[in-house]
Amino acid sequence: MPSADTILSSVFGFSEFRPGQEEVVDAVCAGEDVLAIMPTGGGKSLCFQLPALAREGLTVVISPLIALMRDQVRGLREAGVAAGALTSGNTPEETDAVFEALEDGSLKILYMAPERLAHGGTVRLLSRAGVGLLAVDEAHCVSQWGHDFRPDYLRIGDLRRALDVPVAAFTATADAETRDEIIARLFPDTAPRVFLRGFDRPNIHLAFAAKDSPRRQILDFAGARKGQSGIVYCGTRAKTEGLAQALREAGHMACHYHGGMEAEDRRIVETRFQREDSLIVVATVAFGMGVDKPDIRWVAHADLPKSIEAYYQEIGRAGRDGAPAETLTLFGPDDIRLRRSQIDEGLAPPERKGADHGRLNALLGLAEALRCRRQVLLSYFGEDSAACGNCDLCDTAPEVFDGTDAVRKALSAVLRTGESFGAGHLIDILTGNATDKVRQRGHEDLPTFGVGRDLDKRTWQGVFRQMMGHDLLRPDAARHGALVMTDAARPLLRGETTIELRRDTLRKAAHRPAVRA
Ligand code: ADP
Ligand code: ZN
After folding, report:
1. What are the tens digits of pLDDT across the range 467-484?
2. Using CA of residue 230, residue 236, residue 242, residue 246, what is the dihedral sign?
3. Which ligand is nearest to the CA of 208?
4. Which residues pair with 282 in a beta bridge?
5. What atom of ligand 1 comes closest to residue 15's alpha carbon?
6. What's the CA-to-centroid distance between 348 and ligand 1, angstroms?
């Protein structure tokens, strides 16, 4: 058999492996059970296609994406590889040809939709076909809590037992729960080698900013990048139209895009964006799936995304060409309230809601990070890295202060008022501002009244935002966002731990001239 390097260049025409590919290829070639987690576009297919050619026998690839299977089969055939597919998209002639090739042992790679596994004859057929490797693409489809659950994926375990061959599973979904579920379902009796790499996109500059006057912040960011292609993601459809208008008034070329638009209008925006060099699309998350533009120079979030995975995917649309790209994500207490209530009021089962809060917490932790953002982001995906030198926190180290005292005072105000109020009222109490509401509730008489006079109102707003970001306080959607203390705050209240808070975002917010958005 030729070496992996030789096949890489002679069959696939690539001069070198991408980050992470070679280790996976080596392990799969060596017949190990493997779970490889690589980002979309990271080059997963090569990690089973190359070993398929380096190993004896037939490689069966399970994939849920029919169009993608057909593309890959076409590509492999053009490269001279005997590949075929069994999917519902086949013509009868195609299916016959695959069966013939299976019979005479000439097939090297067989793609198969999971539905096929429900046919009784499939396992028997494959048992006779000399299978040497089972590859599972989009392996997160075995996860019941995932958005892409495919019941037929649960049959892969049986197939594996019947064939008794190594399994190489691939996914771009990196969170730990999904990973554990894939292992439990696909490898119940063995521990696969897990590879996780290639999540870094070093050319993308990462930055977050506390929401101050969001429209001005986005206009400033876009203004410094005039004439470049960019995307602004907004949390609501209505906002996309207003912001696109404001950008046009500031002299940009800008369109809005959301799922409520006619398909034809959406297509026009997609085509223009693809073709033009300097269009800004202001969109909801509906924009992106079909967009494959390599030279998007920047992505901004006017509102906080819903999870760290969503954030990663959305900023990842920038700079696919490898040239420098910029991002900016705005966030504030209203975003946190909105995202929490979307989770709480959704229809997901309780375990899922807990996991969704966890994914939101991970993003908030990134937003409130005190050190290199890329390190925080990559460590969430399981990758270790050094400080990147290409994020706002590497550019300017944040000024931090011991926020323990301020946080304890705030928690005390929350508890003494029965966890029934939002940040505004609590700040009035802390700063000794005897509003009508404070007087009516008798909150002037609380021992907490006025204990926070050393910080001004804007600073307190920053403290509360960071407390929500660290999940010390959660807004209760059922009670108009009243702030409730979480268990994570108890050690702080008991004096068992301390907490560092950022000062610079607070200062910046406090010193910024008020600009009407
Ligand atoms: P995904 O991980 O999303 O399945 P693909 O396997 O489709 O990604 O690969 C994404 C693209 O990268 C494809 O166009 C593929 O040809 C290309 N690619 C994969 N490996 C390499 C490599 N070693 N060198 C250059 N291009 C590669
Ligand atoms: Zn950094």
Report:
1. 998 989 998 877 777 899
2. negative
3. 2
4. 232, 256
5. 24
6. 34
Nearest to 421 by CA among 403, 404, 440, 402: 440
pTM for this entry:
0.76
Give the per-residue pLDDT at 244.
98
Kindly give the distance from the C-alpha atom of residue 273 to the centroid of ligand 1, in angstroms, as a whole number. Answer: 24
In whole angstroms, give the CA distance from residue 501 to residue 405.
11
Assess whether pLDDT exceeds 50 at residue 514. no
Ligand sitting nearest the alpha carbon of 388: 2
Q: What is the mean pLDDT of residues 73-95?
A: 93
Nearest to 112 by CA among 132, 140, 141, 83: 83
Euclidean distance between CA atoms 298 and 302, whole angstroms: 13
Beta pairing class for 482-485 and 473-476: antiparallel
Residues β-bridged to residue 195: 36
Q: What residue owns the CA closest to ligand 1's atom 20?
A: 43
Residue 1 alpha carbon to ligand 2 centre in Å = 44
What residue type is 193 in one-letter code? R
- Write out the DSSP string of 243-288: HHHHHHHTT-EEEEE-TTS-HHHHHHHHHHHHH-SSEEEEE-TTSS
CB-neighbour burial class of residue 426 (10 A; exposed 0-12, middle 13-18, buried 19+)? buried
Residue 361 · residue 472 · CB < 8 Å: no
Which of 18, 109, 196 has most ligand 1 atoms within 8 Å of CB, for mutation?
A: 18
User: Contact 289/310 with Cβ under 8 angstroms?
Assistant: no
Tens digit of pLDDT for each residue in 212-271? 899 999 999 999 999 999 999 999 999 999 999 999 999 999 999 999 999 999 999 999
Which tens digit of pLDDT belongs to each residue from 282-315? 999 999 876 779 899 999 999 999 999 899 989 9
> In a 3-state reduction of DSSP, which class is residue 97?
helix
Cα 179 to ligand 2 centre (Å): 26
Q: Is 43 left (phi over 0), alpha (psi -120 to 50) or beta?
A: left
Q: What is the ipTM of this complex?
A: 0.97
Q: How far is the CA of 107 from the centre of ligand 1 (A)?
A: 23
- Taking the centre of ligand 1 as the mean of its atom positions, its distance from the CA of residue 340, in whole angstroms, is 37
What is the rounded CA–CA span in Å between residue 357 and residue 173? 17
Task: Give the environment of ion ligand 2: residues with CB less than 5 A.
Answer: 372, 374, 388, 391, 394
* 88: three-class secondary structure by DSSP: coil
SS3 of 61, please? strand
List pLDDT tens digits, range 34-62. 999 998 778 999 999 999 999 999 999 99
Pocket of ligand 1 (CB under 6 A): 14, 17-18, 21, 38, 40-46
pLDDT of residue 189: 87
Beta bridge partners of residue 83, listed in sequence order: 109
End-to-end, the C-alpha distance of the chain in Å comes to 66
